[in-house]
């Protein structure tokens, strides 16, 4: 994948050949990417959707098992589909534009309540929270 970094963390139980084979199943060949590690061993792993729904369960299970084996406490993997609970990039950009317009076009004075409700309507604070 041209959008992945040159080097990234991979659970040791996944062989290079497995990674190459699995990469073709992910949209944009974006393999799971180990993004962050907590001192207790928990990790944040980001991955693209799998193209072939029939292969998804097998590949998911193989990768999740490798991650579990890499965890010091052998904790199970918790998965969350962020596409369903986070705004997309277009929504974030639109909120940022509304925020900029509000800050430039709406002076903050005694009409504070209107300004604050306008700020809330941009959704910017919700998105950055």
TrEMBL record:
Domain spans labelled Myotubularin phosphatase: 1-129
By what name is this protein known? MTMRA protein
| Family the entry assigns | Belongs to the protein-tyrosine phosphatase family. Non-receptor class myotubularin subfamily.
Q: What broad taxonomic lineage does this protein's source fall under?
A: Eukaryota, Metazoa, Chordata, Craniata, Vertebrata
Gene giving rise to this polypeptide:
Mtmr10
Query: Which residues of this UniProt protein bind substrate?
Result: 88-89
Any single GO CC term annotated in Swiss-Prot or TrEMBL for this entry? membrane
Q: What PANTHER family does the record point to?
A: MYOTUBULARIN-RELATED, MYOTUBULARIN-RELATED PROTEIN 10
Q: Which InterPro entries match?
A: Myotubularin, Myotubularin-like_Pase_dom, Prot-tyrosine_phosphatase-like
GO BP term (any one): phosphatidylinositol dephosphorylation
């Amino acid at each position: 994948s041209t959008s992945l970094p040159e080097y990234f963390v991979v659970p040791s139980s996944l062989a290079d050949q497995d990674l190459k084979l699995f990469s073709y199943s992910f949209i944009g060949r974006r393999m799971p990417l180990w993004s962050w590690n907590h001192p207790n061993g928990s990790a944040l792993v980001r991955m693209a959707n799998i193209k072939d729904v029939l292969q998804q369960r097998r590949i998911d299970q193989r990768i999740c098992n490798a991650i579990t084996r890499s965890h010091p406490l052998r904790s199970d993997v918790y998965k969350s589909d962020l596409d369903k609970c986070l705004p997309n990039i277009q929504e974030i950009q639109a909120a940022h534009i509304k925020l900029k317009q509000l800050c430039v076009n709406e002076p903050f004075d005694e009409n504070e309540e209107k300004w604050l409700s306008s700020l809330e309507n941009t959704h910017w604070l919700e998105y950055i929270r």
